[in-house]
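Hi Y.,

Following your request, here is the sequence exactly as I used it, all 470 residues.
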Amino acid sequence: MSLKFGTSGLRGLSQDLKGKASAIYATAFARHLLTSGQAKAGDPILIGQDFRDSSPAIAQTCIGALAAAGLKPIDCGALPTPALALYSLSLKAAALMITGSHIPADRNGIKFYRPDGEIDKQDETAIADLAKTVEGDMSVISASAENRADEANAFFFERNASLLPENSLSGLKIGVYQHSTVARDLFVNVLKHYGADVLSLGRSEIFIPVDTEAVSTDTLKKLKAWSAEHKLDAIISADGDGDRPLLADEHGDPLRGDLIGLITANFLKADVVVTPVTSNSGIEDSGEFEVLRTKVGSPFVIAGMEEALSKGNEGVIGFEANGGFLTASPFTLNGKTVSALPTRDCFLPLLAALKLAAEQKKPLSEIAAAYKLPVAAADRLQDFAQEKSAALMEHLRSSRTNLESFLKPVGAVKETSDIDGLRVTLKNGDTIHFRPSGNAPEMRCYVEAANEDDADALLNKGLDLIRNFG
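Below is the corresponding structure, written out as tokens. Let me know if you'd prefer a different format.
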């Protein structure tokens, strides 16, 4: 069985999740809510899904299991994860999102939400333990439920339609790479609401896994070709479940997710920024805010935001290197109070960056360059067995000699950080960071260097070192 909790929810092969397994985990989640007092019999619970072929069947199985467990399922259809989360918070209801996010189409997953937001690592442990107790006598029932997809999507549109002043994006020509993201239609509607000239691109009825953190060569080619052909100011997109943004400049070059997060933090005038160790090291010097670093994954960012709130801080936000942006505090925008949404959202950061481009009347490439951040790059080796990833990390951590020998082709070791994976600062000031994926057979490599050529060279050398290990 491939199923396991990773950086954001349960993930695994679709064939393993369909049927009994999804019923087991939905039942375990329901029992956890009921036994912990976070829900009572008859309470509503929302179910959303992405556009993967396997998602509708998994959603129907979860609906049947949740109803059998004593809750009242509400079907929210295909919609962005932040839309489902916002709607569930408004109803004080738990939720499940059937999605594998950016991972390949033969995989899928479930994201779990308590009535007050995302589950944490303690919840994950409780759900996993309960799943073992119900596995033996679990029956599979596919069912339908009351459908509130239109209401949930409309509620999210209203939030995003109130963030900026009227016609804030007038004068911008923006492409929307629609592929198979559930955010694709809302993107078009929101951008048109703000007066942008919008062009829909690359819509697909076949699921395309788009990773906003390690943008594929094929996606890059599309972005550059569209930008040149249509003379676009920007292209926006998102991953499969619409919680991580993709923003390309006028040349079709994607802005890094942590830069988009930084722009949004300054747009909101945040007081505290919580972000993983993989985000750019220049963030600390790029705004008037305190920075708290965490492990990779929204549960860790949320825990960091909660810690900041517990200390009496206001204006607390979080973002990840993939661009997913979270708000732990309410903010006043456009004369209105925008409620906290402590789950990854792609809409707010995209709108903040686009508004800055429209306001300054500068191309996004100039805005990005003005931050003068170290040049960062990241990529992954797919189909890299998790056992091999574990062996590599054990080897590098076991002795300084092993680490220095492994990294000799790229430079001398100055210092290391073991917050999540292994991040190494080299004596020349560059950094290289090795991290196994938490939910797929992939090994990720992140680097920072003084310029783009050096960053690309370091990244390629790092990937070669991983590839040739053992």
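The chain has a mean pLDDT of 95.

Thanks again,
Q.
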